[in-house]
Amino acid sequence: MTMPVETDTRDTELAAQYEAYPYPERNPQDETKRLLIGSPSHLREIDYWVFGARRSRSKPLRALVAGCGTGDGAIMLATQMARSDRPGEVVCLDRSQRALSIAQARATTRKLGNIRFIQGSLSDLDSLKLGLFDYIDCCGVLHHLPHPAATLKNLEQLLAPHGGMGLMVYAPYGRTGVYMVQEALEQLAPHTEAPAARLDTAKRVMRSLPATAWLRQNGNFGDHLSGGDAGLYDLLLNPRDRSYTIGAFLDLLNGAGLEPSCLMEPARYDPTLFLPDPRLRNRIGALDWREKAIVAEALTGNMATHVAYVVRQGARTPPPDFNDFHAVPVMREIPGIELAKQMRADHTLPFAFGTIVVPIPLPPQARGLLPLIDGKQTVGDLAAVLSTRGVPEDKFRKIWKETFLTLESLNRVLLQSPL
């Protein structure tokens, strides 16, 4: 039995914020026009990064969205499960009735029958008696809580054997300027004032924000520009806003008995992509993966969040051999033919890590190989097609190894789970 996580004055203010300004700002009728896609909680990512592409797609998936807000992650996952006839349910938990009502209206618009909603607090999970889950999403939540480490431990206890989580926390360097304005608004819009009055002050500050303010220079996020009242409030007036360097985030996971199966995207945390100097690359080669991630975050300076899939320590399920001719590769989202079109004449794929675009080299044959990846054809099928184009098996294996490992690190090509 876990102890309830205590709340405090700031937490009470946070609850009031999300009743006044449910976040993110969403119109349920927009569900007729588009599906918002992101990480974590993309179904194919869960299959691959949590379950190692070994869990049968016919096995029911029980998922918890812990702190669902207005429902972006929950709606995405439930919709993807419905579209692929995946059995299971998505349980949406949030203490804000207004946020839940918006998420519920979005689900109704989509006619989702595999999603349900529970009003409740992460501070008292035991009393909710939710049971165990194969997958837990806690995206953009931990960094606002009074005791994130305790809450994460409590969530870990809700994981079924071999289960995992998708997490997102704020990162400090990519949010440069945010905390400066927050500090000013602590004085100009004190927390003792009503949310509407605080928001009015923040809008006035933003209209007069000096050109020298670091927030004006930061293009790594846009809530204050396009996120409406809820976005502006959440960014600049949130009563509690922690950020974690990648080292601090990994320590948080370790304290809860968890470890990352994937930092998203994996290549983002490889500093060699941003440092072409051969001598520097040799030095990087001597670092362990944690040290490399720390260097990448510090050098790029544009990571505003850290997204990770995590599992219990020592419980990571390795995916099948990508070189096995029976393995089935699948595009994460963008069709292979579209990704191939993005390749340049020099056979590089321009890839955006936030505000940094890096040319990623691929084999020339990747341009013809990518359109073949449809989630049905096996690696052996791909080899057979390329053999008709004069590519022998030994050469195909080299091409496929470079193509797959590169695009896996960009979270663009994964392996399909079995039926």
Automatic annotation (TrEMBL):
Descriptive protein name: Putative methyltransferase
Entry EC no(s): 2.1.1.-
Domain Methyltransferase type residues, every copy: 65-163
Record has Transferase as a keyword: yes
CDD domains: AdoMet_MTases (cd02440)
Keywords for this protein: Methyltransferase, Transferase
UniProt-listed Gene3D superfamilies: Vaccinia Virus protein VP39 (3.40.50.150)
GO MF: methyltransferase activity
Swiss-Prot/TrEMBL GO biological process terms: methylation
Pfam families: Methyltransf_12
Top-rank taxon: Bacteria
Source organism of this protein record: Acetobacter senegalensis
